[in-house]
Amino acid sequence: MSTQPELDHDRAGPEANGDADAGTPGQDAVPPLRSAAWFGEGATGGKLRAFSHRSRMRQLGYLPEEHLGKPVIAILNTWSDINPCHMHLRERAEQVKRGVWQAGGFPLEFPVATLSETFQKPTPMLYRNLLAMETEELLSSYPVDGAVLMGGCDKTVPALLMGATSAGLPAIVVPAGPMLRGHHRGRTLGSGTDLWAYWDEFRAGRIGECELAEVECGLARSAGTCMTMGTASTMTAAAEALGMALPGSSSVPAVDSGHHRMASASGARAVGLVREQLTPARVLSREAFEDAAATVLALGGSTNALIHLIALAGRAEVPFALEDFDAIGSRVPVLADVRPVGTHLMEDFHYAGGLPAMLAQLARVPGALHPDRPTVAGRPFGTYYEGAEVHEPAVIRTPKTAVAGEGGVAVLHGNLAPGGAVIKHLAADPKLLTHTGPAVVFDSYQDLQRRIDDPALDITPDSVLVLRGTGPLGGPGMPEYGMLPIPAYLLERGVTDMVRISDARMSGTSYGTCVLHVAPEAHAGGPLALVRTGDPITLDVPARCLHLDVDDAELRRRRAAWRPPAPHYERGYGALYSAHVAQADQGCDFGFLARPGRNPAPDPQ
Length: 605
Hints:
By secondary structure, this protein is of the alpha/beta class. It has helices at about 35-40, 50-60, 65, 90-100, 130-140, 155-165, 195-205, 210-220, 230-240, 255-275, 280-285, 285-300, 305-315, 320-330, 345-350, 355-360, 445-450, 490, 550-560, 570-580, 590-595; strands spanning about 70-75, 105-110, 145-150, 170-175, 180-185, 185-190, 410-415, 415-425, 435-440, 465, 500, 515-520, 535-540, 545-550. The chain has an 8-stranded mixed beta sheet. The protein has a 4-stranded parallel beta sheet with strand order 2-1-3-4, sandwiched between helices. A two-stranded antiparallel ribbon has the order 5-6. The longest helix is centred in the middle third of the chain and has 20 residues, at about 255-275.
């Protein structure tokens, strides 16, 4: 098998080629279409409302024979003028439509919320559940039979998958794809990762404004998501590993012609999913989440994936928790040498063989993957990577030459994080993975920005920087503030890493000894709210421990004096979010969305 993920129709399953045994239009085995409830049977069948619906389709310019009796595929497009990760998706939707038409379906494009990590404030994470709600309600309330989910920028893919899973219709993900490599003065740049690095160089006075402006021009050169193993590439790879996207689709560069072909093949496959009634419920098993977690860990992927996969598992009614990641990580090596854990970029990873090639290496680890489970490709997961070759062994490693012998994310517990916390320890200074130091506490991100460079704080390399008030409630929305800046005067002395602890998240492109997602958060009364400057804190990653070294009696006194902060929002979506969002260890979903239950189908008549 070619290891270049050439996602044309012969790799997208037999349905994409219209093979007779795949369910072609008019075949007896085709189940009744959900959309027929809106349009009636035949060109003049049904009741008054069906007559009205057919009339309105004619108003849209469609002939009855174009859509009646055909699977109607909703294309949920997260394109917008202010989302550079998705700036090509308006064009790519046309390729999806082409695939739907060729397979005998009828495409309808729906614009949905765009969650732009680069511009949306206070954080797109605040609005992940809003897009999930929109996805579920659109698919539930319109005459559609299946869906193509188009996205890539960090929160978009989990939001679309969460909503589609709750809606229960057949669905497939079209990943937006990574952008091209960045360049600066002969160096290859990775968006995010090098942004942080060069900004610290600027703060330390080692580069000036002119060079910083050059870096600004060279970091992001094309449409697509970050080309490092940030949250975007981690979550699109997770979608592929879950079996919710076509094999090899997650790493195709956004501007590569292979991305056009992948989009078309995905549109064609969406029609096959409807004919087979292959819904997310049939794909998203416990085994699928175990394989997705193993994939994330083998990639050295983003810590954000833990929150999103736990939330998605909740929608699929699959028990999955932080402890599962730690257990899987103990037996899964890191095989992708991609920044920020490694040295290469997503373009290199793709041409080295992409996810199929890495999965083929991961499959050599006993029990790491479940090859026999179903996928949206219409064939078992093992066929995603069977026979896939590695073209560049420096980028995709074997288990014997792994970047690290265990997964790149560790889950911590202790009296400072009774609900758990996470650390991307492979992106940290190994000397700091066992460390005790005095806390320097900041009560908000604004407080941090205001005081971090103040010499009066007497911050030393041994200090433990603590940022609170940045969790799901406190942020609000749990922004990516977790990579706390190192004081400029320490940067000037050559200090490049310190222990940093927060209830925030961190960009998947970031690095450093950053303990994140401390749960419960300070705003919910978690122990982080009780820390005072000068308190000793112990981080022990090998022991998976995060401990506040203050006696229990003193903590009880502080607890009795603590008062919850006032809520950020008094009305609107923010108030809804604050009233219902769960903590990080539970996936930050809304309780009323995550709970089991079924809603009545709409009556189109």
